[in-house]
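STRUCTURE:
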């Protein structure tokens, strides 16, 4: 907790500095230069944290998302600059350091962007129960085939991300009365790699990579024409995503990268760009049935995930360290319960 308070206290102070700098300096290179020390601080902050859970969340929220948002903000773009009027300090802090994005306009109570993908409380409760069961299953992981264990890890990551991001958005929504965009859009229903990575999986990352990498790349490769400039732009986006994932796992494992994570994104990026090029060539004249497309898409993503992505969790000893933290939390909760019970008797 001490390391968490120190790290996130530094984050809040740095963001307050950024907020007031923006009041004094207009968008542009000068503001970017003044904000750049904050970017460097955010790259160092994860090293201050020892808990694997808090470290992973901080690396994702701060070293990656917050830094990309601050670079966009310095140039007058992105979620910190897109509102009609400047954000208040509390909202600026929330949007900067949490994976949330304010809706551009009010929505009806039962309507959400991206096809109304936000799940209800019942679904999240089921996910939480299933996550607890998964953690129990890990106690028998030595008796299970490695591929089965890696598959369970992959399911664990998806459910944990869903719950963490949804809980974060819900807390901010309750405290600020703001409507926030959902973070996932039923990725298990994806009908293509472009659909999975661009419209369904971890939409906050997609929303940050689009203005920081994809759109500038589109302009850079505009000489190829509006259709085929998408191909190198999409691949470049996967390259940057791979680099940032390698950085996050370096924070958590502090091991020399073996670049399997990077290969995961390069392969998915290459196949996605090939898919885009084929779609442009056939121009909608033929397509697979949706059921087959979903099986092929999820099968490819899962196969490459088990091959290249999930082994990094074993190499960095992440799951074992996470289970140790779960056990420590359970011990603390049991001790609190014992003391409360003793005080009531």
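SEQUENCE:
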């Amino acid at each position: 907790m001490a390391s968490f308070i120190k790290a996130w206290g530094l984050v809040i102070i740095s963001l307050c500095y950024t907020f007031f700098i923006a009041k004094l300096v207009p968008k542009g290179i000068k503001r970017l230069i003044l904000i750049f020390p904050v970017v460097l601080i955010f790259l160092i902050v994860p090293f201050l944290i020892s808990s694997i859970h808090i470290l992973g969340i901080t690396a994702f929220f701060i070293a990656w998302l917050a830094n990309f948002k601050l670079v966009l903000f310095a140039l007058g773009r992105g979620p910190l600059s897109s509102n009609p009027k400047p954000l208040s300090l509390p909202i600026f802090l929330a949007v900067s350091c949490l994976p949330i994005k304010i809706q551009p306009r009010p929505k009806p109570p039962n309507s959400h962007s991206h096809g109304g993908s936000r799940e209800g409380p019942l679904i999240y409760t089921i996910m939480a129960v299933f996550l607890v069961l998964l953690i129990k299953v890990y106690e028998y992981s030595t008796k299970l085939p490695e591929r089965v264990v890696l598959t369970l890890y992959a399911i664990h990551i998806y459910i944990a991300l869903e719950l963490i991001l949804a809980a974060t958005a819900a807390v901010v929504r309750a405290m600020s009365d703001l409507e926030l965009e959902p973070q996932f859009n039923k990725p298990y229903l994806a009908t293509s790699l472009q659909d999975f990575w661009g419209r369904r999986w971890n939409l906050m990352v997609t929303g940050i990579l689009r203005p920081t990498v994809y759109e500038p790349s589109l302009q850079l490769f505009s000489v190829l024409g509006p259709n085929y400039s998408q191909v190198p732009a999409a691949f470049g986006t996967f390259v940057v995503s791979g680099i940032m994932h390698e950085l996050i796992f370096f924070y958590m494992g502090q091991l020399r990268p073996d670049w399997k994570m990077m290969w995961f994104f390069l392969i998915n990026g290459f196949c996605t760009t090939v898919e885009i090029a084929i779609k442009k060539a056939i121009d909608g004249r033929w397509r697979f049935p949706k059921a087959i497309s979903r099986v092929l898409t999820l099968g490819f993503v899962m196969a490459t995930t088990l091959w290249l992505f999930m082994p990094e969790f074993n190499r960095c000893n992440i799951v074992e360290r996470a289970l140790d933290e779960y056990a420590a939390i359970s011990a603390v909760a049991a001790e609190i319960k014992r003391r409360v019970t003793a005080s009531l008797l």
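REMARK: The longest helix spans residues 146-176.
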